UniProtKB/TrEMBL annotation:
It is an enzyme of class 3 (hydrolase). This is small monomeric GTPase. Its EC number is 3.6.5.2. It catalyses: GTP + H2O = GDP + phosphate + H(+). Residues 265-275, 319-329 have a biased composition (Polar residues).
């Protein structure tokens, strides 16, 4: 007698899918910043010192984040981009679902290179907003900015504050400072964030999103001690009363409400203050966590959140029931 499980029946009917998610990540950055070391650290948990710099490779690995199985296809792009013609770089960019932009905190040039690479990502991944004028574009792809080699503080050439500022200017999803050499957990946190932001971005591609989506499953992203991560809620469109971003240092998660203050101030405030209301649970998904900016048609890429001071923007909240394709951007 053939026994058919309810699940397999649903699969046959197409109502249930046990498909594993595949997330295509491209790791980009100047040569020598530690891209290969980071990818290999994530996959094998080991730090391996030297690699062939000309090797461009896709690594595949399966892991579980937030109780979901995910397959990572990770393209470790060679940093010697002058040898890579623009066409293949751009087609690689088009291939990816998410990006990790890596620089070394000991190398200012690698930091500046991230701006150029982010421009290329924007150029190749932007999509025209539905129903909008021809100049309005949106980027539904998470880009994570990572400063590596924090184990070399004596050689530091890029300050933490500069990294924070750049991540906002480039409208990245979040920012980490890590040491691939020292901490496998910091590397895993980077990939966990890639997964979380990608999940949110692909779940609601046409809606503004909130950090509550990112942290929906099991609380907040809390990198291990020694790592520093910065989240810009504005990159996910979250705000009801102002721009909110989250600085995560060790196990403390701190919230600051307005980006118009100087980044130095942000850093010192954040470092010095205690745990904030990030400890309280986010409101439920069904609540009004969407925002609609008053002048979306004027937006050009990059989103004006990083160009205009917050005080120039008027924001109003909208109910989830009123979200429709016209509300997307
Ligand atoms: N001190 C320190 N060195 C690191 C760290 N991560 C990588 N390195 C070293 O940096 C050098 C370059 O690392 P790779 O992983 O080959 O850099 P890459 O970005 O892949 O370079 P290309 O393959 O040329 O694009 C190697 O000597 C690594 O051992 C780190 O966190 N700290």
């Amino acid at each position: 007698m053939n026994a058919t499980s309810p699940k397999s029946s649903l699969v046959k009917l197409g109502l249930h899918t046990n498909k594993q998610k595949t997330l295509k990540v491209m790791v980009l950055g100047q040569s020598g910043v530690g891209k290969t070391a980071m990818v290999v650290r994530f996959i094998t948990r080991r730090f391996i010192g030297e690699y062939d710099p000309n090797l461009e490779k896709i690594y595949t690995c399966q892991t579980t984040f937030d109780k979901e199985q995910v397959q990572f296809d990770i393209l470790d792009a060679t940093g010697q981009l002058h040898e890579l013609d623009g066409v293949s770089l751009e087609s690689n960019i088009r291939w990816a679902d998410a990006f990790i932009l890596v620089y070394s905190i000991t190398d200012k040039c690698s930091f500046d290179e991230c701006s150029r690479l982010k421009f290329l990502i924007n150029y190749n991944k932007r999509r025209r907003k539905l129903g909008s004028a021809s100049k309005d574009y949106t980027l539904d792809i998470p880009v994570i900015l990572v400063g590596n080699k924090t184990d070399q503080p004596g050689d530091r050439m890029v300050l933490l504050e500069e990294g924070q500022r750049r991540f906002r200017e480039l409208s990245c999803a979040c920012f980490h400072e890590i040491s691939v050499r020292e901490s496998v957990e910091q590397v895993q946190n980077v990939f966990r964030d890639v997964f979380r932001f990608w999940r949110v971005f692909s779940k609601f591609p046409k809606l503004k999103r909130s950090t509550s989506d990112v942290a929906a499953n099991d609380g907040f992203v809390t990198p291990d001690s020694g790592s520093c991560s910065f989240y810009d809620a504005s990159s996910l469109g979250h705000s009801s009363s102002g721009r909110r971003s989250f600085l995560v240092i060790g196990s403390d998660c701190l919230e600051e409400s307005d980006h118009t203050e100087s980044t130095d101030e942000i850093a010192s405030n954040s470092f010095g203050s205690s745990r904030s209301d990030m400890d309280t649970p986010f409101r439920s998904r069904a609540s009004t966590d969407g925002t609609l900016l008053s002048r979306p048609r004027r937006w050009r890429y990059p989103p004006p959140g990083c160009l205009l001071p917050h005080s120039n923007r008027v924001e109003r909240r909208m109910s989830i029931s009123t979200r429709g394709s016209n509300a997307s951007y």
